[in-house]
Fold this sequence. Notes:
The complex is a heterodimer of chains A (113) and B (113).
Chain A: E1 4-5, E2 10-14, E3 19-25, E4 30-38, E5 45-51, E6 56-59, E7 62-67, E8 72-77, E9 86-94, E10 102-103, E11 107-112
Parallel strand pairs in A: 2-11
Antiparallel strand pairs in A: 1-3, 3-8, 4-5, 4-9, 6-7, 7-8, 9-10, 9-11
Chain B: E1 5-7, E2 10-13, E3 19-24, E4 31-37, E5 43-50, E6 53-57, E7 64-68, E8 74-78, E9 87-94, E10 103-104, E11 108-112
Parallel strand pairs in B: 2-11
Antiparallel strand pairs in B: 1-3, 3-8, 4-5, 4-9, 5-6, 7-8, 9-10, 9-11
Amino acid sequence: DQQVKQNSPSLSVQEGRISILNCDYTNSMFDYFLWYKKYPAEGPTFLISISSIKDKNEDGRFTVFLNKSAKHLSLHIVPSQPGDSAVYFCAAGPAGSARQLTFGSGTQLTVLP
Amino acid sequence: DSGVTQTPKHLITATGQRVTLRCSPRSGDLSVYWYQQSLDQGLQFLIHYYNGEERAKGNILERFSAQQFPDLHSELNLSSLELGDSALYFCASSEGPGDYGYTFGSGTRLTVV
């Protein structure tokens, strides 16, 4: 039972254009959402997060949007750069004191020069 | 270098064997999390320790066990290994028991043959 789904295994975007990565979740108990970026042979690196009381959070070129009614979040990267090429994982955490994350299967983003 | 150290980086072992994976958290971090990433899947939460005490357990097999020592390093013990246990095992750390933005290590790749 995949509670966090990233339906696109891969995405290619031209440098300078917008990259949009999508994520859907099914568990209504999730109240905190994160995006991690992973390069080969490295661990995931925290990128940006959003709590369920917000619908948008922005950090430089990265913006995360949360649509609670649709149980959907997205990560926008603009403008995309070749160094953004990596696997992006969406993750969600429950309300309360537990802090374990449920991860999606990842989307490989390739930014073409 | 994230500051979270995992050893060994690679491990090849036979079915039925037992292995120990080691994790040293970032300086000052009291929480250690263990995650398993099987092929083409997201990271699956295994277990969380905070300051030596177990705080949460995920879908961790009975053949697997973990502990966090007084110096805060953690070990994940995997026994009676099966082919399906081949995966990347990540450790992450955070300062408190309730921080979501973990810092991950670069992982241990376990191959069971």
